[in-house]
Amino acid sequence: TGLLAFMTPLSPPMWALFASAMVVVSLFLTLSLFQVEPSQGGNYNAWNSLWNVFSSTVGQGAENQPMSFGGRIIIGTWWFFVLVVMASYTANLAAFLTVKPVNPIRSMEDLPRQNKLEYGFIRSYAIRRLFETADSFPLRDMWEKISANPDWLVDSNEEGLKRAAKGKYAFITFSGVRFRQIKELCEVEMVGQPFYKYHVGFPIPIGSPHKDRIAYEIETMRQVGVVEELSNRWLEVDRGRCKESDRKTDDGVLKMENLLGLFVILGAISALGMAVCVIE
């Protein structure tokens, strides 16, 4: 939405490249027709050539057309180029205007209120008992749907992440699990706040002589920062290695790589047209 919403189907570099192509083709057209008399096809100076190219871009056409064979090659190639670009632009603009964005999931409460996303956790996860005994929203409502669809549960963190990366699935898991080795991490994000906190302890025999020593060492490691360092190394999510190109985007914007071949064809055949003009 906005004043420039009509420009969203093409990326900014695409608009710049398209405008540059108009100028270059206009220049080629001017150079290819310098020997034509006004009575043979009009005064094709630089301005009129640019106006001819622009007119054909917006589907209006020009009163005078090139008389030379080389000039016709150039303008004909431009017509084909414009036909493909405008068809792609129109299709993308229609999609932007008609497709409504999916409401994002920002918290646990959003999950049971929608029917487009499946959700679940590891089949043997500790929080399963929490869901089973819940008697209030949202956990109770979520468990009703999960229990009715057991295939929403997964067997491992890796399976859950891969399923979430494919889309249409929200994976509920421990927020500190280390997923660095899983490439799909670059294609998912964590939303909402932790809702189930618990502590981990070390069980030892009653009356063990090592109890005080173990407690002392753990507290010392915590105070000097060793626990935090280990947590950052093994538990924190590392997104630093994720490149922008690794993240999936479904915005549908036409980028340079999508139509680069078309620009190459335009340049090559226009150069051929100029060569024909030289021969003429």
From TrEMBL:
Residues 16-237 form the Ionotropic glutamate receptor C-terminal domain. The record marks 105 as: Crucial to convey clamshell closure to channel opening. InterPro entries: Iono_Glu_rcpt_met, Ionotropic_Glu_rcpt, Iontro_rcpt_C. GO terms for molecular function: ligand-gated monoatomic ion channel activity; signaling receptor activity. It is found in: Cell membrane; Postsynaptic cell membrane. Disulfide bonds join 186-242. The keyword ATP-binding does not apply. The chain crosses the membrane at residues 14-34, 77-99, 259-279. GO terms for cellular component: postsynaptic membrane. Keywords: Cell membrane, Disulfide bond, Glycoprotein, Ion channel, Ion transport, Ligand-gated ion channel, Membrane, Postsynaptic cell membrane, Receptor, Synapse, Transmembrane, Transmembrane helix, Transport. SUPFAM superfamilies: Periplasmic binding protein-like II (SSF53850), Voltage-gated potassium channels (SSF81324). It holds the Pfam family Lig_chan. The keyword Kinase does not apply. It is a multi-pass membrane protein. This is Ionotropic glutamate receptor C-terminal domain-containing protein. Gene3D superfamilies: 1.10.287.70.
